[in-house]
Structure formats: structure tokens, C-alpha cells
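Standup notes
- HV: blocked on the assembly model, inputs below
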Amino acid sequence: MFDLSSLGIGYGSLLMLLSMIALLLTGMQLAMVTGLVALVFAIGWFGIDALPLVTSRLYSFVGGYVFLAVPMFVLMAALLDRSGIARDLFDAMKVVGRKVRGGVAVQTLVVAVILASMSGVIGGETVLLGILALPQMLRLGYNRKLAIGTTCAGGALGTMLPPSIVLIIYGLTASVSIGDLFKSAFLPAFILALGYMAYVLILSRMHPEYAPLPTEEELANDRQINYFKALFFPILSVAIVLGSIYTGVASVTEASALGVVGIIISAWIRGELNFAMLKESAKATMSTCGMIIWIGIGATALVGVYNLMGGIDFVEETILALSGGSVMGTILIMMVILLILGMFLDWVGVALLTMPIFVPIITNLGLDPVWFGVVFCLNMQVSFLSPPFGPAAFYLKSVAPKDISLGEIFSSLLPFIAIQIVVLALVIIFPELAIWWK
Amino acid sequence: ADYTFKFQSSDPSGDKNFQVQKEWTERVERMSGGRIKINLLPVGSVFKHTETLDGIKMGILDGQVTATEFFSGKDPAFGLIGNTVGAWSDTSQLLQYINYGGGYELMNELYAPYGVKFIGGSTTGVESFVSRVPLDGVEDLKGLKLRAPEGLVQRVFAAAGAAPVNLPGSEVFTGLSKGVIDAADYTVFSTNQKAGMNEIAPHPVQPGFHSLPLIDVSMNMKKWNKLPEDLQEIMTTSVRDFANDITTQLRIADQKAVKEAQADPNITIHNWSDEERKKFRAIARTQWEEFAKQSPNAQKVYDSVTSYLEENGLL
Amino acid sequence: MNTENLSQQLDTEHEPRNVLDRVIVKLGNALSLLFLFTVAISFYEVLMRYVFNDPTIWVHETASFLGACLFVFGGIYALATNKHVRVVLIYDAVSDRTRQYLNIFHHIMGLIFAGLLTYAAYQMTESAVFSPFGDVHFETSGSAWNPPFPAYVKIMILLTMCVMFIQFALHLIQEILGLRKS
Ligand code: NA
Ligand code: NA
């Protein structure tokens, strides 16, 4: 076989990236693309004896205790979806602004924030909001782009606000306290959510036709809400998950399991629990996990092979050479790399690829790895929305009315990506926004 | 370079230990006049830390700088020699055992079936014990809720009457500050002090009494055999110097941190008497015995370590 | 409310395509209940540790072990239901004929992927099941409890990769037959 190693690490890296993008664009499964590139490079660079490296990484990856938080969070979202808890919560939040222009969009974002503090994976929330909120806004005659963008960007907040699987994985890779990361992410997450709300309100003031007010008739038809019932259970679940993490009673994985228990008990008290619901939720968890974890498997395989090729030193040297050692320059290069990778790869892949290289550089520059975790998390917010690989958009597409195309979703997301980048810049320029409590 | 090797470390690249290991690789390059070049990879970059032995056996990695105890799942013998919990009160005791007391030969015997050559052994520092409550001897361990990693460490503490809890390293600080645990097996004193552990748990036991890992530098046997004798000698000797280097540097850092802690009126450093250390060792020994039953190799380790300790009056 | 929405990704076909896929889906649906079991034991652990002061030694490892097996299985489950994530901007835009060719290409690549993984998994599993002396010794976790989970997970990986290889082969045959028909 052709000896790829004669290319040298520079051209090797380029070939790796190009073959990955080319295969991706043919529509091949992401997990297979990264995995296959890893396998081919392992053989081409080191020979057939190097192949077990890939399965060894597969084994190490799936056995990580912390990854158990993924199915727990997915299960939580699936249960919220199948019980009436999320719907009640959404209806209760009508108080936020039924009579304000853009009120339903703001209401959607408020619900997004509450759901985000229960769950920590991307997907569940986007789907929930896509079912609960999007049809309402469309029916009221909201501007389609505004409605789609709010739903999608709001749904993505799940991994920005603690608990968050993105922060958990970062904490493990960078060996910093996950509790500290959670504390630091709160304020930036709220700023982001407030940014979205401000955008919605300003836009609907400038273009009143974008956000019609409900008619008298519609207001009269509002269903009566038992606020206690609607709010008690979600707040209880938030308290269980975040409370057990912050008091140190449970590890994050355990806390996510407690969250599932909390929601099961809530559904039971509400009289909604049945075995079919549990079964359906478990099924959904299986297929979502298969998908998420295999993307991680492909990425971790690729990272292992690339590291063995000498990729760590190469990327590190390249970044330092390009930035000329300047701190801001280094960060900007990292941001560009993260934004570009986020267009093509899933966040798990991006984290596994870049963090082992970036975090030591950040620490050596004397910067705070906790702060960088928040920055990374904001980057991943962008990656959820940015085309062509935008998971939040995919999730919304799966539940949106048929006439909404993926292209329309992506174009609706552009202003929200802009807001994300503004908040990202703010946190980079003012690290205190994240680590004020230190 | 005539020989280019890829070694994987069990430490992350930002870590002090990694830096010292990297300096060793640079020294090897200079000592060999550039004939050997070792690329040191951080933990997990290619293999998970428990999988590097397989990686070397298959010839994917050339070598490793790692804690031997990570291979306990392959053979309990590695768990026992890798961290003979309670056996060592200071680093020189362990290094003496490895270099002059039979440890080197035994490690080579254990690694031979895996096609791995044990070049030499090192260690870090005796881990200090972090505690919220005063601990002055074995008696005080009774009922103590402490965090300890799984394996022999937990067993020994359980045998001493404590209640070991499994907690990931990243949760130790919160756990201690919230009083979820009373004490923790964490890491060396200087790092604990820097992390603020001693402020929230102001009764550290220093020097510690429980945990001193064997760090081994080893490589693929076939590749070792291809090295000419002078380069083999450079490898062996430089590893012995590396052991001296890292333990000394860590001791200096510890001494500085101890001084700092002594100046802090809130922190009380507890140092166990030789008597108490021996008592703890005796309890630990019962667990080594249990462990030794798990494989013939583990029994060999037990015999070797205990006879060394007995000869030197440590048991 | 839409019951399949969480996992539904794109407007592609999600039905199992042959007997093997149907078996995998059935089995996967049954196995998925283990996620609930994992929740239950994790809850039990927290309860034992903080209420009764008596932590278990088996929950973390059992949970990780079950998770590992389910995650690996999830790969062939998602393959059977065609739920692996793809970038479809081009894929969706091309003609049906071109898409058929693309599918054949994907399945050939998938076959290579699964084939190489099976080979690699065999190498890995061999050293987890046999000691270097050649006798059977299952690799254990090395913890206080010390279960042979590492060996089990590796065996699970090997089995799953074999199934995945057959899956890709069957899909490829179906694709080629489909191309002939049209
Ligand atoms: Na969240
Ligand atoms: Na993206």
C-alpha cells in the first residue's frame, strides 16, 4: 500500500481534512466518514498492525462513566416530551407576554431557558419547542424566519446553561472542575438568552407585521392553567439535578439519573405514567445515543490516529507560528478553527479533536481553562446552528411543518448566529463575565 | 536520529510531571548525540492509560512512562507492585527496592510475556492525606468517610475501619468543602496546597502514609534489543537519573508548600509516628495477602516486597 | 404528540430494510430498557451512599459496562433504522439515479469500514481473553470489585462489528438489486 507517511504531517493533515469533507458532502454517515478516514490513515501511515489502535479507542470511549449522562439527558427529554409536563410549562409561561408584541417568541425563549436548566444535551429541547412553540407562532402569523430562528436557537441553549454535556466533556478533557464550569457558564448563558429576547422585541417593534398580537377571541379561548401544577414539577426537577451537583451529593452522571427519576415521579403524580411511555422513551434513547456516541467513536478514532502521526505538535506549532506568540492572536486562530470545524463536525468530534491541543496552550499562556471552557461552549452554540452540519436545524426539521426546508431554517438562523458571535466576543474580551465569582 | 520512538505518558501535557518527563527525553537525545529521539505523547492521546501495554505489545507505541498499577486488570501483580498501599514512607525506600532490592528483575520478569522491557522505575512523592478532622494514627481512621480510588487503596482503608467512597477526582474539592467526605486520598502536598485543599480540609497528614505509585519507563522488547549496548546503557542510566530528578523536584515543591502551610494558623500538619505507620502497614499487609492470592505473579510480588521490607526492618 | 420525534432526523427512510435489521431493531428495543435499569441502579447508589452511608462497589462499574454495551449496539441499531447523521445538502439535491450510485458507494465504504474494524476488534479481543501465556484469562477492571467487564465489552465490540459487516453487505446487495430494477 502507498505509504502515506511520506507526505509529512503538513500535507497529511490537509489530505485528512479534504478527504473527510469530500466524503461528508457525498452524504455518507458522519460516524463512518471519520472512522473510515481514521482506519485508512492508520494503515496507510503505519501499516496494518496499527489498526487495533482504532478499536482500542472505541473501547475506551464507550466505557467512560461520564458518557452515561448522555442517555440520561436524552431519556429526560423523551419523558418530558411524552408526558404533559413540557406543554403545561409552555402554557403557563403565557403570562410572560401575551399582550406584548413578540410575546410568544419571548415566551418560547423563557421556556427554553427553564428546559435548558433541566437537560444537558442538544436535540430534546429543540424538538420539544418545535412541537410546542413553532406551530403557535406560525398560526398567529409570526414572521416565519423569526419563529423558526427563535425555536431553534432557544432549543440549542440546552448545552449552554448548566447542566451541559458539552461542559462535562470539556471538564474531563481539560481536567478542570465541572462545578466551576457550570458556575461560570450561567451568566454568559443568560446574556445569550437575553440577547435573543432583545433581538425579538426590537425586531417586532421595527416590523409590527412580523409579530401580530393575539386577537380578543384567541385571548378568550386561552385554556385555564393550574400554575402550581405546571411549574412545580419542572422546578423540582431543576432543583434535583442542579442541587445534587452543587451540593456534591451526586456526580453529574448520577445527577442526570436523579433527574430522570424526578421526571418519572412527576409523571406518575400527574397520572400520566405508563409502561408504553417508558418503553417509547427508552427506544428513542437507544437510537439517539447510537447516533451521538458513534459520532464520538469516529472522532475519537480519528484523533488517536492523528496524534500518533504527530498531529499534536504540528497543530501547536502552526498555531504559535501563525499567532507570533500573541495571546489574542492565538485565541482568534483557535476561534476560527472551532467555527470552521463546527460547520462540518459534531461538537463531540470538535471537542475531542481540539481540546487536547488547545487547553495546554491556553494554560501555558496563563489563561484560565475554566473561562476557556465557557468560550468553547459558546463556540459549540454556533456550531449547532451553522450550516451545512447544524444539528439544531436537523432536529427542528424533523418536527417542523413539511413546507419548511432545511435551507429556510439555516437562513433563519443567521441573525441568531450573529448574536452568538457577539456574546462570544464579549466573553473573550471580558473574561469576568464567566469567572466573576473567582 | 537512528532510533525514533513514540512514548506515551500517563500525565496530561500541562502537568508538571509531564514537563519533567519531557526533559528526560531531551536529555536522552543529547546524551546519545542525537541517535535516539523520543516523542513523548500526553495521556490518552493514542491509548487510554490502561491500554498502553497492549499498544506496546502490538508495536503501535514504542514505550510508556506510566503508573504500573494501571495494568492491574491484566494481572493483579501489576496492581500490587504498582502501588503497594502503605508499604513506603518515603520515595527512597521504593527506589531502593526497585534498583537494589529485586524490583527491577521482578518487573522485567512480569513484563517479558508482553514483549515489554522494563527500563527503570521511578515514583512521584508519597501522597499527602487530605483531612477535615485531625488524624494522628490508625485509630482515627475508624468510621472516617474518605474518598479513595478503587482497588487496593479502598480495600486497605476499609480494613482499617474507614468508609471509603468512590468519587471522581474533579469532585473531591466540592465533596470536602460540603462535608460530604471527611478526608481524601488526593495527590502530593504541593499540589493539594496549590489547589486550596488544605484550606478547606486543614488537617493534612504529611508525609502521607498510604499511597506511593511505581512509575515505570518501559518499551517494546524487540525495539530495545535492536539498540546497541551503549544506547541501552544511556536509556537505563538516564531513567535512574530521571527518578532522582522527579522525586527531588517534587520533594522541593512539597517542602516549600509545607512551609507555606505551617505559616497558616488555620492549617495543622499531622505527621504520623513510625509506630503508627508500622501499624497501618500491618493492616495493609493483610490486604496484600488477599491480593496475592489472585495470581501466581501477584504472590511473587508479595513475597518479594515483604521479604525486602522485613530485611530492612520496615515490617 | 409525535412519538418518534426525538430520534427522527431527516426525511429519510427509517424502516428496517431486511430480516437482520428487523431482528436488530427488536433486540435493540428490548435492550433499551436497560437504560431505565441503569437509572434505577444509579438512584440506588446515591440513596445508599448519602442516606444509608453505605456506598456500593458495583453500581458505577455495572452502569458503565451496560452503557458501553448499549452504546456499541446503538451503532448497528442506528444503521438498521438509517438514523446515522449525514450532511444531505448535496445528497438531497441530486437525481434519484445519482443518489442510488451514491448509496452504493456509501455501502462499499461502509463494508470496508466494518471489515477493518472487525479485524482490529479481533486483535484487541484476543489479548483481552487470553493471557500472554495462551491460557484463557478474561481481562478485569482492576478495581476492588474487579469484574471481567473489559473483556466482555471487547467481546461485545467484536460481535457487533461482525454484525455490522453483514448489515452493510446485505444493504449493498439490496442497493445493487434496486439499481438493476430501476
Ligand atoms: Na442544560
Ligand atoms: Na454547524
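- HV (later): unblocked. The longest helix of chain A spans residues 275-308. The two ends of chain A are 55 Å apart (CA to CA).
- Next: hand off to the docking folks.
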